[in-house]
Design goal:
The chain is an all-alpha fold. It has helices spanning about 25-30, 35-65, 70-100, 105-125, 135-140, 145-180, 185-195, 205-210.
Length: about 230
């Protein structure tokens, strides 16, 4: 299957758009069956976080209409435009490639970037004013100004909280699997030094390297001493 040419299929774009997908994504084809559910869960976390950012824009608009600052609405749009593609490229793809190729470098990239995303999501769930995020603090304090707007603001606060919890669970599960398989920072450094982190081979390709003449040659039938003449 690795010898076949794989055509990029993500993101799925309508045919009338003169752009082509940038990535090849196939969980059943590239991810070991034991980890498919976890990788899909990380993918669903990314989708849910993007939906949360859309809801946050609507809530920030209600916040602005209700008497808040327009800068929150502008920043909410910026966060959607910035974090939707960057989340996919910067932390979902490293997780995907890490499980596809058992790549320590991509595991480390996932832990670092996804950990930063988790911290940011926690801050968005808190909801400091002027950050473009309708979190708990912003929603609760705005009840005294506009109840209707504050109710809208509660939805992204809940969703940011759910996103942060889901991210924490994913980080802990991936870390448990990685450490249980003997992963280490030294392995990530070795991948960096060798350059294999750029395009790590799939697990199937790694296993195929042990086929054919790469295996040591042993005699088919062992030579035993004749009769019972053992040394």
């Amino acid at each position: 299957m690795d010898g076949e040419e794989k055509v990029n299929n993500f993101p799925p774009l309508p045919k009338f758009i003169p752009l082509k997908p940038c990535f090849y994504q196939n969980f059943a084809d590239e991810i070991p069956i034991d980890y498919q559910s976890l990788v899909k869960r990380i993918y669903h976390v990314w989708i849910f976080y993007c939906i949360t950012l859309v809801v946050n824009i609507i809530a920030c608009l209600a916040w602005w209409i209700g008497g808040g600052y327009g800068v929150n609405f502008g920043l909410a749009i910026l966060w959607l435009v910035l974090f939707s593609p960057c989340g996919y490229v910067c932390w979902f793809r490293p997780a995907y490639k890490a499980f596809r190729s058992d790549s320590s470098f991509n595991f480390m990239a996932f832990f670092f970037i996804f950990g930063a995303q988790f911290v940011l999501t926690v801050l968005q769930a808190i909801g400091f004013s002027g950050w473009g995020a309708c979190g708990w603090l912003a929603a609760i304090t705005f009840f005294s100004t506009s109840v209707a707007a504050a109710v809208f603001m509660l939805f992204p606060a809940i969703m940011f909280t759910m996103s942060a919890v889901a991210m924490l669970i994913c980080i802990l599960r991936v870390h448990k699997i990685y450490r249980g398989a003997g992963g280490s920072f030294q392995k990530a450094q070795d991948e960096w030094n060798s350059g294999t982190w750029r395009n790590p081979p799939s697990r199937e390709a790694q296993y195929s390297n042990f086929s054919g003449n790469s295996l040591p040659e042993y005699p088919t039938v062992p030579n035993y001493p004749p009769g019972n003449q053992w040394p």
